[in-house]
């Protein structure tokens, strides 16, 4: 063997196994421009919605939540972390690389018919024992599963933000509609009161009270208009798109007008066994168990087999060596740490389950109470409408004045505003219950 050929051959082998580095700089200007160009009908969004079987339909909470899962940076970060943990599986599955040593020597003062070079080469092949590689792979698989469940948990958090923003926008728009009607009624009442005051039929105090009620309605209307303006911006931020993307589509609020019945037993079962964050902690516990198995397996030393070659004074000599670590300490320290980490993972899971119990109890109580309040508000609004209809018939019969009808209509309008507020409160409680379950109410 020619010593001058060994290093070039080794270099070729190493270069063939290398991966080239690719630069990927971050440009704030480009990322800002990309955000400004986001649309709800972009090709990437359309493809994603097709995969989720939601390519068609109204832009309601569910469909916008899927867009949030596609665009929102929190979900994108969780997805990148999950990809990172999945890549760790490949690392865990890899076998240890063999080690090659090459130590040529030169004897310049030696008089010999043979070459003055002394060539010695060894290859050390590590052999893992006790199934360490499979246990390491199981740990990486469990960690990757936990990361995938965290993606689902982040996606649900994005949906929760979308629903809250949609509910705020829906409530503001409905209040604008109701308060505009109420303001017109107050204007009409003031005109009639002014005419009656000039005729001496009512006192200035009644007119002043009517104007105060009109001012309150105007302030409430301006507040609703402010919430509508900020609600669009909140919805755009929740979805992860610019405001122009939200304004370019027609929003569907129909899913925010239902208050379905819930079964406490099925709700509790789902929340305590199927929540994504809970399943993520369960996968973390499985990873901790695999880590403990791996540390226990490390009590058994790995082998290193070292076949070698030596060329000396014209002789080709082959060698075979075996080495291993002596398990003097029994790997007791890392085993104890792994056991403690498993206990921590268990307690973290139980603590989260206990937290969910409390969240669920509060959410169920609030949902029941708010539904009852909404039912009462609906009954009062119905009574106010009935009183207004009765007054109208009396006005037509000439039994009461037209001002009384306007007053009854104002009362009915106030009842409708109260009903809308009660419905929004109940829908907010429904959202809190859905968050406690991490599932939609059907």
CATH fold naming: Outer membrane efflux proteins (OEP)
The Rg value, from CA coordinates, equals 37 Å
Instruction: Name the CATH superfamily assignment.
Output: Outer membrane efflux proteins (OEP)
Helix content: 55-70%
Brief synopsis:
By secondary structure, the chain is an alpha+beta fold. It is built from 12 helices and 5 strands. Helix content is 69%, strand content 8%.
What does this structure look like?
It is a single chain. The chain is of the alpha+beta class. The protein has one domain: Outer membrane efflux proteins (OEP). The chain is built from twelve helices and five strands. Strands 1, 2, 3, 4 and 5 form a five-stranded antiparallel beta sheet that branches. Strand 4 and strand 5 (315-324) form a beta hairpin. The longest helix is centred in the middle third of the chain and has 67 residues, at 132-198. The mean pLDDT is 89.
Q: What is the secondary structure topology, with strand pairs?
A:
Elements: H1 3-16, H2 28-36, H3 43-51, H4 61-71, H5 73-93, E1 99-102, E2 105-106, E3 117-127, H6 132-198, H7 204-239, H8 243-247, H9 264-274, H10 276-297, E4 303-312, E5 315-324, H11 332-396, H12 402-437
Helix pairs in contact: 4-6, 5-6, 6-7, 6-10, 6-12, 9-11, 10-11, 11-12
Main attributes of the structure:
single chain; Outer membrane efflux proteins (OEP); 12 helices; alpha+beta; 442 residues; 8% strand; five-stranded antiparallel beta sheet
């Amino acid at each position: 063997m020619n010593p001058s050929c060994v290093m070039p051959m080794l270099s070729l082998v190493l270069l063939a196994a290398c991966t080239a580095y690719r630069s990927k700089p971050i440009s704030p200007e480009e990322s800002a421009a990309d955000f400004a160009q986001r649309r709800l009908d972009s090709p990437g969004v359309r493809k994603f919605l097709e995969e989720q079987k939601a390519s068609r339909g109204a832009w309601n909470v569910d469909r916008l939540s899927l867009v949030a899962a596609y665009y929102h940076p929190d979900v994108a970060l969780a997805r990148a972390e999950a990809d990172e943990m999945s890549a760790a599986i490949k690392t865990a599955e890899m076998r240890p690389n063999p080690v090659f040593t090459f130590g040529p020597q030169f004897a310049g003062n030696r008089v010999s018919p043979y070459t003055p070079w002394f060539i010695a080469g060894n290859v050390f092949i590590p052999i893992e024992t006790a199934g360490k590689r499979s246990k390491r792979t199981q740990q990486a698989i469990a960690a990757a599963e936990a990361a995938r469940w965290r993606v689902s948990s982040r996606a649900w958090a994005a949906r929760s933000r979308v629903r809250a923003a949609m509910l705020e926008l829906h409530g503001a728009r409905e209040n604008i509609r109701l308060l505009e009607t109420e303001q017109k009624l107050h204007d009409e009442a003031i005109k009639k009161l002014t005419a009656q005051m000039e005729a001496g039929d009512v006192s200035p105090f009644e007119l002043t009270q009517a104007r105060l009620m009109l001012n309150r309605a105007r302030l409430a209307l301006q507040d609703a208009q402010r919430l509508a303006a900020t609600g669009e911006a909140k919805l755009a931020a929740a979805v992860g798109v610019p405001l122009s993307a939200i304004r370019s589509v027609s929003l569907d609020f129909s899913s925010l007008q239902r208050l379905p019945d819930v079964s406490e037993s099925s709700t509790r079962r789902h929340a305590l066994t199927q929540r994504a964050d809970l399943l993520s902690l369960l996968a973390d516990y499985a990873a901790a168990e695999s880590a403990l198995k791996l540390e226990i397996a490390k009590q058994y030393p790995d082998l290193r087999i070292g076949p070698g070659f030596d060329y000396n004074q014209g002789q080709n000599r082959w060698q075979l060596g075996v080495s291993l670590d002596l398990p003097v300490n029994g790997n007791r320290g890392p085993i104890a740490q792994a056991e403690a980490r498993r206990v921590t993972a268990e307690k973290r899971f139980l603590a989260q389950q206990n937290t969910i119990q409390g969240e669920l109890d509060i959410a169920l109580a609030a949902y029941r109470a708010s539904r009852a309040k909404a039912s009462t508000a609906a009954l009062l609004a119905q009574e106010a409408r009935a009183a207004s209809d009765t007054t109208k018939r009396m006005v037509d019969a000439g039994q009461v004045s037209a001002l009384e009808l306007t007053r009854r209509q104002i009362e009915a309008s106030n009842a409708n505003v109260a009903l809308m507020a009660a419905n929004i409160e109940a829908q907010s409680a429904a959202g809190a219950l859905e968050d406690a379950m991490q599932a939609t109410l059907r």
